[in-house]
Write a structure and sequence with these properties.
- The chain has 13 helices and 16 strands.
- The protein has about 450 residues and is an alpha+beta fold.
- It has two domains: about 100 residues, Nucleic acid-binding proteins (OB fold (Dihydrolipoamide Acetyltransferase, E2P), Beta Barrel), CATH 2.40.50; about 290 residues, Bira Bifunctional Protein, Domain 2 (BirA Bifunctional Protein, domain 2, 2-Layer Sandwich).
- It has an eight-stranded mixed sheet with strand order 6-10-11-16-15-14-13-12, sandwiched between helices. It has a five-stranded mixed barrel with strand order 1-2-3-5-4.
- Helix 4 packs across helix 6, helix 4 crosses helix 7 and helix 4 packs across helix 13.
- The radius of gyration is 27 Å and the shape is elongated.
- The protein binds 4-amino-1,4-dioxobutan-2-aminium adenosine-5'-monophosphate and magnesium ion.
């Protein structure tokens, strides 16, 4: 008999029919006459109740049916008399695929803390919570492709191994095949990278943007969606060493077009998740964050506030609030500042623009005031910065001047500069941190809980 997924049982409710279900046992309980198993197969947050009549099955047969074991049951789907579910399967046959020794299985009990589950990252997808998070993550990934594909953007795959540092932050993971215990040296004692695999120093990318700009100035509108790597030693609930980023880049787009795209984009993703992951979102709301659905709908139905960095600084300075990091024009905003603007002052998502040039990357379009650039950060409740982007400096001479001023090695940049030498156009783009979006949509508070296998300082076990 063909297996039916539990999600389809709930969708189609084929009452009276014999069904074949396979999954992992969440719990087993009951008495001398009847045993109830809650079965989950990962297709939905909901468990299917299986009823074993002990006239037809004996305790010996059911002994292997413990929390975590994998089973196959054929039986008839009937209406349930019990509370908590509308139907159940009356088991006719049982096959045990794999046992899970109760003395050993780490997820034996319910209600483990998220911290405990991080230590069991290899098994946590089997919990209801992580099942919900991972299904939402998958749906959001699909929504992202759908949004861009339906608007004529092309998906561009940019390299993960690169010789240039896009953000200029200098926190990259080096990629090398040189023997670390016996490095080849040049005559003056430096590492001889001409002997390395690519004949030069390389690293894992921090952003696909620079190559994205090559795509956008050819195809018009592209987006990337791939992993990025940052070797900052920042142990916060919002930073990963390996995270996924979506980076659209569009020709003939100015900063205002860019802001509108960013707003439409995140709203589309949130709306798509609400429409397609309702069960999972409601499960997470019930267990972790009572205001989750309300917050998602609020963002969906309200316009983002747009203001300049300079105006933002004024508001922070006049707030009467004592921040851990003092505020003055020129400082990079900390999470506490971003969240004050979003959660307390405006109570809406905020797009801040025109940041001081000295705290932003070299490629941003320079404003005429000589001290700000056409940057835009989208700030979200509970998250802080969820998107960073800008209009790009399209003028060759101005870009060159900035590169020289910042001391960026030109030999790494020649190919990028060719976009400004040949058919340069106004263009803009941004990067959305995928995990920050998943954090927002799931209501989770630690970024380690929204990626299947988190990479953070001192943590690459699973
Ligand atoms: O602001 P960032 O550094 O911008 C860029 O990388 C640009 N090249 C993007 C562009 O214009 N194409 O990063 C973009 C976003 C941030 O707003 C944040 O959401 C996320 O990426 N992000 C991280 N997410 C998780 N862990 C980290 N360590 C992150 N660093 C940035
Ligand atoms: Mg940023």
């Amino acid at each position: 008999m063909k297996r039916i997924k539990i999600v389809d049982i709930f969708r189609e409710a084929p009452l009276g029919q014999t069904v074949s279900v396979m999954g992992w046992v969440r719990t087993r309980r009951g008495n001398k006459n009847v045993q109830f198993v809650a079965l989950n197969d990962g297709s939905t947050v909901r468990n299917l109740q299986i009823v074993f009549d002990l006239n037809e099955f004996n305790e010996e047969q059911l002994k292997a049916v413990t929390t975590g074991s994998a089973i196959h049951v054929d039986g008839v789907l009937v209406e349930s008399m019990g509370k908590g579910q509308s139907f159940e399967v009356q088991a006719k046959s049982l096959e045990v695929f794999g046992t899970a020794d109760p003395a050993e299985y780490p997820l034996q009990k319910k209600g483990h803390t998220l911290e405990f589950l991080r230590e069991k990252a290899h098994l946590r997808p089997r919990t209801a919570t992580f099942g919900a998070i991972l299904r939402i993550r998958s749906t959001l990934a699909f929504a992202i492709h759908k949004f861009f594909q339906e608007r004529g953007f092309f998906y561009l795959n940019t390299p993960l191994i690169t010789a240039s540092d896009c953000e200029g932050a200098g926190a990259m993971f080096q990629v090398t095949t040189l023997p670390l215990d016996k490095l080849p040296l040049t005559e003056d004692g430096a590492v001889d990278y001409s002997k390395d695999f690519f004949g030069k120093p390389t690293a894992l990318t921090v952003s696909g943007q620079l190559e994205g700009e090559l795509g956008a100035t050819a195809l018009g509108a592209i987006y990337t969606f791939g992993p990025t790597f940052r070797a900052e030693n920042s142990n916060t609930p919002r930073h990963l060493s390996e995270f996924w980023m979506i980076e659209p880049e569009v020709s003939f787009f100015d900063i205002t077009d860019n802001m509108q795209l960013a707003e439409d984009f995140v709203k589309f993703c949130i709306g798509y998740a609400l429409d397609n992951c309702r069960d999972d979102i409601e499960f997470l709301a019930e267990h972790f964050d009572k205001e989750l659905v309300e917050r998602l709908e609020f963002v969906l139905h309200n316009e983002f506030v747009r203001l300049s960095y300079t105006e933002g600084i004024e508001i922070l300075r006049n707030s009467g609030r004592k921040f851990e990091f003092p505020v003055e024009w020129g400082v990079d905003l900390q999470s506490e500042h971003e969240r004050y603007l979003v959660e307390e002052h405006f109570r809406k998502p905020v797009i801040l623009t025109d940041y001081p040039r000295d705290i932003k990357a070299f490629y941003m379009k320079q404003n005429d005031d000589g001290r700000t650039v056409r940057a835009m950060d989208v700030l979200f409740p509970k998250i802080g910065e969820i998107i960073g982007g800008s209009e790009r400096e399209a003028d060759y001479d101005k870009l060159m001047a900035r590169i020289e001023e910042m001391g960026i090695p030109m030999k790494d940049m020649w190919w990028y500069l060719d976009t400004r030498r040949f058919g340069t156009v106004p263009h803009s783009g941004f990067g959305l941190g995928f995990e920050r979006l998943v954090l927002f949509v799931t209501g989770m508070t630690n970024i380690r809980d929204v990626i299947p296998f988190p990479r953070t300082p001192n943590n690459a076990e699973f």
